[in-house]
Amino acid sequence: MSYTIQSGDTFWAISQKLGISLDALQAANPGVNPSTLQIGQVINLPGGGNSNGDGPPAPPPPSGNGKIVGAEGGSNGGGGYENYSGPASSFPDPSQWASYQALWAQNSRLIHFNANDQEVEYIHQAIETVSADSGVDVRAILCIIVQESGGNPRIPTTNNGVRNPGLMQSHNGAEFNPADPQGSILQMVRDGTQGTKDGDGLRQCLDKYGNYYEAFRAYNSGSVDKANLNDPVGATADYVQKAANRLMGHTWPGM
C-alpha cells in the first residue's frame, strides 16, 4: 500500500496519523530521505498501514486560510510586568500585543537555553505552519510554548490525572522523538494548538470562548471564571496574566 505526501507531512506525522510505527515506516522506505520529502511524493506503507487513516485520528482539518495570523503589525514591546486581572476586557487588546518579530527575537533567546540551533529553527517553522493551518495567532502559539515548556522539546511529560506531554503540554499528544526531531516538534505544536483526540487545543478553546484570554484559562484549567481570569480553577493562578505579559513583550526576572 502507498501514501502520497501532503503539506506538512513528516515520517513521524504520517506514523501518528495512520497508526503505524515510525520504525516500520522507515523500514518500508529504505531509499527515502525523511528530511527531503516532497508534496506529491509517493512512499510505501508497511503491512497493516492504512492510507485512509483508520488508526489514531489525524489532526483536525485546517481552519486557517494559509496565512500566518499575527505575523504583521504590533508594537516593539518592552516594559516590566503588569498585574492584569479581572475579565478579558481588562487585559490588553491583541491590537496592543508586540509584533511577532519582536516576540520571536525575545523568546528565541529563552528557547536556546533548552534547545539546539536546529531544534529552535524547527520550532520556528512549526509555529508558523500551524498558525497558517489553524488560524491561531502565531504570537499566542509562541508564548504558550514558552510558558508551558520554555521551548524545551524534551520536557518531561506530566500526569496529574491527565497526560500532558510536549512543548505545549498537550492533552495526551506527542512527545519529542529524537529519530524525527522535525516531525515530532511539528506534531507537538499541532497537538497543543489544534487539539488531540483526547482534548482541546488553543483552537477549540478560542472557538468556544471567543477571545484569547479566556481560551488561555480554559487551556490551562479546563474551565473559566470569566469575571476573574486569575482564578486558577484548580490550575495556575497567574497563567493568563503571564501570557498577557509575554504577548506584550514585557520582561521580568525568571520569565
Given the structure, what is the number of helices?
Answer: 9
Order of helices and strands: EHHEHHHEEHHHH
The side-by-side strand order for the widest beta sheet comes to 1-2
Average residue pLDDT: 90
Structural class: mainly alpha
Low-confidence stretches: 52-62
Helix content: 25-40%
Which quaternary structure do these chains form?
Answer: single chain
For the secondary structure, the number of strands is: 4
Beta-strand percentage range = under 5%
Whole-angstrom Rg:
18 Å
Overall outline = globular
**How far apart, in Å, are the first and last alpha carbons?**
49 Å
What summary fits the major beta sheet? 2 strands, antiparallel
Compact summary:
This protein is mainly alpha-helical and 255 residues long. The chain is built from nine helices and four strands, in the order E-H-H-E-H-H-H-E-E-H-H-H-H. A hairpin with a 3-residue loop joins strand 3 (158-159) and strand 4 (163-164).
